Amino acid sequence: MSLEGKRVLVTGGTGSLGQQVVRRLLAGEMGTPTRVTVFSRDEAKQHYMRLSYLHREAATDEVIYRNFKEILSFRIGDMRDFETVAHSVREADVVIHAAALKQVPTCEYFPFEAVKTNVGGAHNLVRAVKESPAPPEVVVGISTDKACKPINVMGMTKAVMERILVEANLGFPQTRFACVRYGNVIASRGSVVPLFLDQIAHGGPVTVTMKEMTRFLLSLDRAVDTVLAAIRTAQPGETYIPRVPSARVVDVAEALIAGREIPIAFTGIRPGEKVHEIMVSEEECYRTAERDGYYVIGSMLPEVVGAPVEEPALAGEYSSSVVTLDRAGLEGLLAPFLAGRLEGSVQA
């Protein structure tokens, strides 16, 4: 699928992922859209996002800057408000749904707020699509590893979001509803690398919850690659999973400390936190195929799934507990951060 001449709506477009999605869309790598609309509820973030595109000087930014002026638009709104969502959806051919409450501790302390945004917002989106006189061609929902065997509120609400989008395909062939699911994005707000760098800059200690904890390490661009791949080729009800390396969190901390005299403090597991990330569960692996370098989970609803998976791509769950990065690999992956440079650190 090409985005040439399409109208793209990005909910939560001022977040870390949303901003990078917008930048890639403006670069025209899937064709030049007619319009890219950023939908979010924070006027300050939208203001700073506008400013981030001004006064570009590098030649590589010329196309993005021109498309920013001609294509990019902003809309204030909340996924909890059906009328606002419906108005935005009526003007979209493609929807990338990234709006969410995503901080694990916040969702633990305010669980119903997470339900209203992550679950109610997804319901409003599906209702808006189905009631639109010209529904979008594709909707891709952004989920998380925490939705797989969820133990925290954020993961539970995201798991329900996935189910809402999968079920939306029933009896509605006009729109393809699909999801992507991924783990820790290295440079996103609230992720461990920016936190560790800040702690290191202040002399430590670097706080790690426990020695056994592992995480997948995903670059922001790899996360966007997954979203664009789902737009191009995901079938109704499918969930795309990137294949990415994993490491122990304490090894990440030591790689960023890089031999300096900065202590590591073990603080204990936080409310709702997992020891290991799981992106494909043991129950899901039997309906998981491999496509273009991604794991693709088919719908559990027989009315939605296409051809059954004859040869599953996985024999068991896809978990960060299988550590794939040694110290040298970590140092290579974290090289931009070791040099003090945060990829995609646009103010949001």
Could you describe the 3D structure shown?
- With 348 residues, this protein is α/β, with parallel strands linked by helices.
- It contains twelve helices and 15 strands.
- The strands form four sheets. The chain has a nine-stranded mixed sheet, with helices on both faces. Strands 7-11 form a two-stranded parallel ribbon. It has a two-stranded antiparallel sheet with strand order 8-10.
- Helix 1 (16-26) packs across helix 9 (220-233), helix 4 (82-89) crosses helix 6 and helix 8 packs parallel to helix 10.
- The radius of gyration is 20 Å and the shape is globular.
- The two termini are 29 Å apart.
Q: Taking Cα atoms only, what radius of gyration do you get, to the nearest Å? A: 20 Å
Count of individual beta strands: 15
| Low-pLDDT sequence parts | 341-348
Range of helix content: 25-40%
Oligomer: single chain
- Could you spell the SSE succession in H and E letters? EHEHHEHEHHEHEHEEHEEHEEEEEHH
End-to-end CA span? 29 Å
- Overall structural class, as computed from helix and strand content, comes to alpha/beta
Query: Quick check: average pLDDT?
Result: 91
- Beta-strand level of the residues, as a percent range? 15-25%
CATH class call: Alpha Beta
Under CATH, the homologous superfamily reads NAD(P)-binding Rossmann-like Domain
Q: Which key phrases capture this entry?
A:
disordered C terminus; nine-stranded mixed sheet; globular; alpha/beta; 12 helices; Rossmann fold; 15 strands; two-stranded parallel sheet; 348 residues
